[in-house]
Amino acid sequence: MAEFLLELFSEEIPARMQARAAADLKRIFVDGLQAAGLDFGSAHAFVTPRRLALVIDELPLAQADRREEKRGPRADAPEKAIAGFLGSVGLSRAQVEERDTPKGLFLFAVVEQSGRPTADLLVELSERAVRDLPWPKSQRWARNTQRYVRPLQAVLAIFDGVTLTGEIDLGDWRLRFTDETRGHRFLAPEPLKIQNFKDYQAQLADAYVILDRADRKARILEQATALAAAEGLRLIDDPGLLDEVAGLVEWPHPLMGTIDAAFMEIPPEVLTTSMRSHQKYFALEDSAGKLANRFIVVANMAADADRDQTIIAGNERVLRARLSDAKFFWDTDRDAPLASRVAALGNVTFYEKLGGMADKVTRMTDLADYLARSIDGCDHALAARAAHLAKADLTTAMVYEFPEVQGIMGQYYARHDAEPEAVAAAIAEHYAPAGPSDDCPTAPVSIAVALADKIDLLVGFFAIDEKPTGSKDPFALRRAALGVIRLVVENQLRLPLQTVFDHARSLYGDLTGPGATADLLPFFADRLKVHLREQGVRHDLIQAVFALGGEDDLVRLLARVEALSRFVASDDGENLLIAFRRASNIVAAEEKKAGDSFTGAVDPSHLTETAEKALHQALSAADTGLTAALKDEDFAAAMLALAALRAPLDAFFENVIVNADDPTLRINRLRLLTHIRSAMGKVADFGEIEG
Fold first, then answer.
1. How far apart are CA 616 and CA 679, in angstroms?
2. Which pLDDT score, from 0 to 100, does residue 529 have?
3. Residue 71: C-alpha distances to residues 81, 99, 109, 299 (Å)
4. 170 phi and psi, to 5 degrees?
5. 4, 22, 283, 524 - which has most CB atoms within 10 Å?
6. CA gap 500, 484 in Å, rounded
7. What is the pLDDT confidence band of residue 516, given thresholds at 50, 70 and 90?
8. Which of 333, 363, 387 is the last residue of a domain?
9. Pairing mode, if any, of strands 51-59 and 349-351?
10. What CATH number has the domain bearing residue 155?
11. 433: preceding bond cis by omega (within 30 degrees)
């Protein structure tokens, strides 16, 4: 068994592409080896800014020899048929056998194929990897025709301790496989001669390269946390930034810098956005959770006191220039009241077919006022005011420079203008929740404005038939729908969604026809199914409730799903479900035969058996209980009413022959079972439930 080591050494790979590239490199080789019938022990891919590496162990030196028998035509077949067979197997007539079979005398060829050397296959897979790695963006360089993410400089390929004989054809020149790599660009630029993976990893570490991405992340986190703790501070958790920075350095060396005191009056969201997005700095906070005037920068260098101070000073200087702009925007934006900026939204496009941002704000204001009247404790005037101002910060210099803080800056400017706190908070929160992990607004005014923003978006784009298709959702309508679902469900809002959609549609005037929202409720149903499945709710129970149709109150719908979930998990529910299926199957079969349904009323005078009389009485009682429970939206009580049917239905099937010879009795009993099906169908479509 042997080890294979590959390294594709290039100019710096963008951090956002590295993890996917490593996974793709591993996939290409694993798929290729499996297709060739080659077993191996394990495969591990690694990535740093300048290299993609792969190690595969326990590889055989060659494929196993293969012996295959092929049956040809009959021995007395026409010569043309025999010649065709001999040509396909590459043998002469003397080299094939004649064998007697139950169907006659046939020709058989035994083809023995020697296994290919594994080294040859690895050369082909290495060439394929360079050619087929699916980079989001790639380039050609010099006069080469081969594309790669960045100029490829060397290919290390070692199998069983020997450099593979091969090369990568780039077009204008060829890169021969080698057993050499290089360490850190500045700290250890000399070539390193490699023997195997263990030697490779060790020599790279000595040359200031930490090969494993997870190890680089751990080093950054450990050292940055220690630097912060030494100053009595805490590192603000930022997994995304940590992942990105680990893709920018091969030898991470965290250092702490200082933010000038003059900039600390800028809203902390602006400070952290500037540091994170533009400079890749980590922010720190004090024990009270307040943003500290310190930051962590991760250098790609070894520790050196003088050099460290130079790096820190340089980064402080860059940050100072960046924050000087932010402070200027902060000061000048507050010269004009936020309300005075609403008019300028007429120059901001929302979407060409849906008008400008000023039109959207007008609709949002009306819709927020409308929604507020269905939200407990919501002041509709404040909701309308917040919606009116929600997009005004889009015209500020700060948001133009830092789009990530839209909404947040509106909150600060509203507070500066002495707007009510509920209005300021709603401006900041109206984009939320932006994703499944985002906090959901809970303040009444914030809920109204957040709903208005998302519902206006959904109704507008559905009206012009710009709906999500497959994996494409350019206007993030699925995310908007999930946001509406979370706002409604987590705040237990009793909103009739179809009525709200119709009102929102009317605000677009002549743009939309009366059917513009027809597809929205089914779209929400699909989003809700996804949302519930992610929470562990069985998909068949969700479908059983949705199949009833006509439900647009999400709180009531979820209460029904929850009650159904508990019911089918109980002994009564499980057994009643079995009996329901039996009843449904019998009725369905007889309906098919008769070409008609059995929905007529049950005639008590034709109930002759004790068990069918008991079932009829139980069904009448259950009907009464179901009607009252469903009216009160007490779905637990509705399930209890159904549970009372279990015993009499079991007894009915044990003691009563449904398909009696007397047609009057048979039809009456089928009507009784149909009534069972329709009664249970008031709660859910039990036919959708699996198991």
1. 12
2. 86
3. 13, 10, 6, 68
4. -90, -10
5. 4
6. 12
7. low
8. 333
9. unpaired
10. 3.30.70
11. yes
Same domain assignment for residues 45 and 165: yes
512 and 398 together in one domain: yes
User: Domain check: are 576 and 431 in the same one?
Assistant: no
Checking 236-243 for CB contacts under 8 A at 24+ apart, the result is 236/272, 236/282, 236/283, 236/284, 236/285, 238/276, 238/282, 238/283, 241/276, 241/280, 241/282, 242/217, 242/282, 243/15, 243/19, 243/217
Is residue 512 pLDDT above 60, yes or no?
Answer: no
Q: Which of 400, 397, 394 is nearest to 360 (CA)?
A: 394
Question: Do 313 and 398 share a structural domain?
Answer: no
CA atoms within 13 A on the CB side of 105: 6
- Report the DSSP pairing between strands 355-356 and 162-163: unpaired
When divided into structural domains, the chain yields a total of 5
Residue type, 373: R
- Of 81, 113, 145, which closes a domain? 113
Q: For the chain, percent helix, then strand, then coil, each to nearest 5? A: 55, 15, 30
Q: Does residue 459 lie within any of the structural domains?
A: yes
Facing residues of 59 across strands? 2
* DSSP notation for 48-97: ETTEEEEEEEEE-SBPPPEEEEEEEEETTS-HHHHHHHHHHHT--GGGSE
Calpha distance 604→554 (Å, rounded): 40
CB 245 within 8 A of CB 239: no
Same domain, 124 and 6: yes
Phi-psi map region of 468: left, alpha, beta (phi>0 left; psi -120 to 50 alpha): beta
**Maximum CA extent, the chain:** 105
Task: State the chain's mean pLDDT as an integer.
Answer: 93
Q: What residue spans of 334-417 are helical by DSSP H?
A: 357-372, 380-389, 397-401, 408-416
Q: Which two tokens stand for residue 311?
A: 């790096």
Judge if 158 and 14 occupy the same domain. yes
User: Distance between CA atoms of 610 and 5, rounded to whole angstroms?
Assistant: 80
496 exposure class (CB count in 10 Å sphere: 0-12, 13-18, 19+): middle
Specify if 542 maps to a domain.
no
Cβ distance 41 to 30 under 8 Å?
A: no
Check which CATH number belongs to the domain holding 496 and give it.
1.10.3210
Domain for residue 527, yes or no? Answer: yes
Whether 369 contacts 465, CB under 8 Å: no
Q: Which residue has the tokens 């000038």?
A: 260
Cα gap 527→343, rounded to integer Å: 36
User: Do the beta carbons of residue 181 and residue 156 sit within 8 Å?
Assistant: yes
pLDDT in tens, 387-406: 999 999 999 999 999 999 99
Report whether 246 contacts 252 (CB < 8 A).
yes
Asked if 313 and 359 sit in the same domain, the reply is no
Same domain? 128 vs 57: yes
Looking at residue 137, the DSSP 8-state letter turns out to be S
Q: Which long-range contacts (CB under 8 A, 24 or more apart) does 534-538 make?
A: 534/436, 537/561, 537/565, 538/565, 538/690
pTM: 0.80
537-573 pLDDT, tens per residue?
A: 888 888 888 888 878 899 999 999 999 999 998 998 8
Residue 223 placed within a domain: yes
Task: Measure the CA–CA gap between 317 and 320, rounded to whole angstroms.
Answer: 5
Q: What is the pLDDT of residue 526?
A: 87
Question: Structure tokens of 365?
Answer: 């204001």
Structure tokens given for 497: 């969604």
Which residue type sits at 659? N
